[in-house]
Every structure is written in structure tokens, then in C-alpha cells.
């Protein structure tokens, strides 16, 4: 009953479990497609068939490898991992090399729907000339779908002449309509070429601001958080708990709402902040209307949102420093300033660096502050509509995929996501190497 | 285990077999009540259950495009604006309606509504109501709508004081600005090909028309000092509701709130801008009911859609919210309604918004160009228009 030892055993078990899952899913899919040509089965047939294969399959494999039965506890976790992590990741990578979009989605284009008036085997007679009705030229090889109430079948055009259409398959039902399928294609590196062709108008300036934003916001938040943490840690301070609670409020409120309040506060003519500046006799500042001031506004609002986190982290780290160290320093005649520089700050470094790094990685892809506060704007001359003054890589990807290129350019969006993934990994590796934050893990 | 599965599948198939329609809608308030009442009536007469689900306007298209082929979308949507039509039809989620409607029904529709819901020569939905922006004025400040630009400007500038504004609107949004592009010579966003279909290769909002229109929009802010920085839809709409704004460019969707705020308002076309080639003319949007091509219950879905767009239903819909129906018979019954009367003077000036999918690639760069032009007094309008045209052409040509 013992399983093979070490890595070999682990890999063998995983291989068997994955094989079981994939095989039963495969059988489920196959059954679905076989049934589909006859009638329209509901989608969950796949699941039912897969389970019908999986359960006896698991029992059978369990007989062959008795030690495997313990590993069956892994099956649900493995299935979820496959479905919710590996499948989307794989799909993103795959789509990045296709022109998949809302229109090129692999479904029939209903604006080309044409009535079938005669059918004999794979030969069809349509009510209008094929070339115009299906909007294809040349029509050879174009994927189409023939359908009738409750039936549908995919096929390819072999020949189109006038109203006559020859397909490569014969449907097992009486077809009523035929429509062209908007198939998406494998386009190789075309998406990446398109992104790089916009590099000077989008990729480079956006990347530069993205790095600047992530660095500046982390440093700024950490500095303010550290300062407040040090002040609040002073046991002589009266009403310490009150201050601590008051300062955390901005962190406790949902950012989705507070950021929008900030948008109103920062409005040029109607916002409270510019009115206040006016009362003080200062000129109004175009917080959200000027490309440079908008960057300042983002850093300030993100500071307001982010410093409590750094403050709390500082307070937590400070509580791990034993009081004896300060007492000993006092006995040795050190001033409070010296104690801060020689004891507190060096001891804070170790716990704070990983927090700073993870905060950098978070802010590098901090979509919501950009999207809610400025929407990437204001517009800047010489830049694309998708990559404006305060757009970061992720908001640029979002706008490209969902608002500019026909509103659902998934292929292009996936390609940008892959690029962002590569950039984030590279930056994180450099960060970890430079700071040695992962060194103890060894 | 197998028994449980069998029970499960039995339960699921029963749920499917019960004739039931799901309707997605972005209506709210009294209009939602109207739809629910219509659904109840339909349930009584046909025996088919109708479930009304509220979906935010901005989510409908995306959800429907992704969900419909998987059987995860509603049987009907009430309603979509016609500029989504091309994209949704090409994606295959809309049922062509040509085979369900009668000549009688079609002849009762205004031609512009029919054109708006036709894509590639096919009717893809049943148009219900139309909308466009117009000059809405507060009668407390403006006794009679200004007829010429000079009248308008004098009035707007006189009324811009410390506590009131003469004229504000959502200046950064191309939808609100199209009227000016049309006045300066852009008949529509795209030109038409020999067959009368919109041709994405012919972009009309660039060139001289685009430059002049953009210059005018810029002048509204920096020369005539009318629409200051920081004005967006919320600010303009809020000021009008508060009674602090004399004139606004806005559409029928806002009128319910204005009535609620007890503002006595009038509706008129915007006067012809100075130096323009023709009169101002807004984008005309038509909203209609569409049926899911993958629906399991198409016949009932179409029947329900037909009851919703019947003249009688549209009259009661207008009374619920104030939208302007596209059915000729309904408009006739509502002749005396000031809103319907006001907008029926504006609609003939308008142009239906393009319904081809390429329009999705125009909004972004177009809005970008407008924001750039109104950002600084010294912005280079000529270069901005050239950049905009280049960006749109590149996106469409890809």
C-alpha cells in the first residue's frame, strides 16, 4: 500500500489524477459534440458524462494503484485549480496570439443570415446570391453555420456560385438558414507588433509614469506612515488611541466611494479645495485638468488612502523592538535622536522592506485609483486616447481592450496583459535581488 | 450518486421546460414599474412567466455578448441604443426581426427609427423611443428660446453672474458636441457608400469641418467664457436642477428629474453657430427592444416585444417617464405634450448615430481631441484634429 517515495511518487500521483480529470472531461466534450449534431443538448451534459466516466474511472485506477486512494482527497482542489487558475492563464496566453474580439467571437454573424430554399445533401440553394448574402469574397473555405429550429451544424464552404452553395458536410436535418461564422484566427505576433508600433505614443511614456507613480507613492506613503507611527508610538503622548483611530479612518472607508468624493473635491471651479485656496488668496489649481497637476493629485489622494496601512505596519514592527534596548541605550548616555537612528530605524528595516516591496507591486497595478480619480486623463498632446497623461499600463490595457478598439478586443488586451506580466515579473525579480528580501527563505 | 445526478438533471430540465422569459432592462423608477406592469399583463394573457432583471446600462452589451451564446443571457433586452446594433448583430446574438413583423407595423414607424435599427439590410430590433440632446432652458430666466446665435450669446453672457450660469453642458463628451460638427459641415461621422450603407473608410469629422467645430467648442470656453473648466455632466445637470443654470444641452432622459425639481423648462434647437455651414443638428439615438438569437423561447419573446412597442403601450410609457415614442400613432396621441412637441422640432434636424461597429473606435480619440482642445487657450486645433483622424484610421484599418 505504500506509494513510491519522493518526487517520483508525487509526480506519478499528480500525473494519474490529472490524467483522470482530463480524460473524463475529454469524454464529456466528445459526447457533447456527438450529440450536438442530432439535437441541442444543454451544456451540463458535459459535466454529467464526465462525472459518469470519472467515478468508475477513479475506482478502477484505485484498484490498479492501491496507494493512490489517499491522493483522491486532492481531486477537488486539483479540479478547481485547473478550472479557475490554469485554464484562464492558458486561455490568456492563447488569445494573445489571436484576433479574438466581441465580433470575431467564433459565432455566426446574424446580419448574414440567409434563408435556404433548396437542399440536396451538402448542396444548398439560397434565396440570394451567396457572395452578397454571406458577405464573403472569395467564399471558399469560409466557415458557416447551417441551422433550423433546435438544430445547428458548422461547416466550411467548398464552392459558391450564384445562389448555389456547396459545403464540406451534410447536415442530418433540414436546414432553414445559413450564416457566416465570424471566426477568430491565429495571428502570430501581430498583436505585439501593434502594441510596439504605438510604443512612442503609448508604451514608453505610460511605462515611465507607471514606474514613477509606483515608486513615488510607496516612498511617500512609507515616509508619512513611518513618521506618524513613530509619533504615535511615544507612550507619553496623550489621547494616543484616539489619534490612532482617527488616522485609520481613511483606510477603513471603501476607496471606491472616497476616491469619487475626491474627484468632486478637486474639481477646478466647483471643488471645495480650490474654493479654500481662493479664500486663502491663492490661484485655483487645475488638479484634474492639467497633465502634470493630475499626477500630483493622484499621488496625494493615494497618500491619503495609503498612509494608514504604512502607519499600522510601522506600529506593529515597533512593538517587536524590546524596551530593554532603549533602557540600555539610556544608561549608556544616548540621546533620543541617537536611539532613533541607531536602534529603531535599523531594526525596522527587516520587517518593513517586504511590506514596501509588496506595496510597490500592488501600486504598480493599482487600477482603481487611476480609473476612478482621473480615468487616465487628462488628455495629453501627442498621446493616444487610450494612453493619456496618468494612464498606467493596466489602465491602458483596459481601455485598449474594452473602450477603444471596438470595445471588446480581447486578443489585444490579452497581449498587453502578457507584456505587463513580463514587466512586473522582471521588476519584482530586480527588487528582490537588490534588497535581498527573500534571502532568509532559503 | 447516480440517483442524485438523475434527480438533478430531471430538476434542471423541468426548470427549462417551464415557459419563462427573462428580460434585462436598464430602466429605473416609474419606467421600471411600467415594464413590470406590462410583464404582468403579458403573463395573464399568454401564461408565460416573465422575470424582469435590472442590469446597469453600461454592463448590458458586454454581458449579453458574452452570455448569450452560452445560454446565460436574457431572452429580451429592453432596451438597447441603436449604436450597439452593428456590433451585437455581427457577434450573432441578435435575432433578425424581419420575419416576425408585419407591413402594418413597419409603416407606423418613423423612417429614421427603421434606418437606425437596420444593419446590413436587416431589421434587428423593434424601435421604441428616440432621444437626442436639445437646448433646454429655464423659463424663469429665458422667456423665449433664442433664435439666433447673437441672441443666445447675449443672453448666456448676461445670465452668467456670480450665482447663476447662462449656459453649461457636458463639454468633454463627443455625443453632446456632434451638433456643432454637423453645423460646420460633417453630415455624419461616416460618409455613405454607393449602396447607401455607412462606409467606415469615409471619416467626415476630420478636416475643415472638424477643425472649425473644435475651434467653436474651444471658443465657448475661452472666447465667450461660457463653459468654465471643471464642468462635466454632473455639474451642468446639478446646476440646472438647482435652478442656477439658464440653458443646458441635455436630453429627454434628464427631464424626469427636472420636473421633480419643479423647474419650468422649454425645449428648442440650439441656434446656428457663427460661421457655420448649416443648422445645428444633434445625434439622434433610437432605443429599441431586441431578442436573443439563442433564446429557447423565441416566439413568446417576440410576442412580448411586440406588445411593448405597440402604440398603446408606448403612450403609457411616455406618461411614466417622458420618453418620445417613434410610433407615428403614439406621437399623434401625445401631440399636446410639451416635451414631445419640443423634441419633434429638434429630431428632424438630427442625424442617426452610426450603428456600424467601427463607431466604437471613434468615441475614444474623438473625446480625447475635444478634451485637448478645451484644455488650454493656446491648444493647436489643427494638429489635434490631424492626430485624431490618424488614430481613428489606424484603429479602423487594423
TrEMBL record, chain A:
Key word Ribosomal protein present in the record? no
Q: Spell out the molecular function terms from Gene Ontology.
A: ABC-type maltose transporter activity
Query: Is Magnesium tagged as a keyword?
Result: no
Major localization listed first in the record, in broad terms: membrane
Q: Which InterPro entries match?
A: MalF_N, MetI-like, MetI-like_sf
Q: Membrane-spanning residues where? A: 12-35, 44-65, 71-97, 183-200, 206-230, 242-265, 296-318, 352-373, 409-432
**Keywords in alphabetical order:** Cell membrane, Membrane, Sugar transport, Transmembrane, Transmembrane helix, Transport
The listed locations are: Cell membrane
Q: How does it sit in the membrane?
A: Multi-pass membrane protein
User: What Gene Ontology cellular component terms go with this record?
Assistant: maltose transport complex
GO aspect biological process, one term: maltodextrin transmembrane transport
Looking at the record, the residues that make up the ABC transmembrane type-1 domain are 207-431
What is the role of this chain?
Part of the ABC transporter complex MalEFGK involved in maltose/maltodextrin import. Probably responsible for the translocation of the substrate across the membrane.
Q: Which family does it belong to?
A: Belongs to the binding-protein-dependent transport system permease family. MalFG subfamily.
Protein name per the record: Maltose/maltodextrin transport system permease protein
Q: State the organism of origin.
A: Thermus arciformis
TrEMBL record, chain B:
User: Which terms in the GO cellular component ontology are assigned?
Assistant: ATP-binding cassette (ABC) transporter complex, substrate-binding subunit-containing
Signal sequence interval, chain numbering: 1-17
Pfam families found in the cross-reference section = SBP_bac_8
Q: State the coiled-coil residue ranges.
A: none
For biological process, the GO terms are: maltodextrin transmembrane transport; maltose transport
A GO molecular function annotation here is: maltose binding
What the entry lists under Gene3D superfamilies is as follows: Periplasmic binding protein-like II
Question: What keywords appear on the UniProt entry?
Answer: Signal, Sugar transport, Transport
Instruction: Return the PANTHER family for the record.
Output: MALTOSE-BINDING PERIPLASMIC PROTEIN, MALTOSE_MALTODEXTRIN-BINDING PERIPLASMIC PROTEIN
Protein family membership: Belongs to the bacterial solute-binding protein 1 family.
What protein name applies here?
A: Carbohydrate ABC transporter substrate-binding protein, CUT1 family
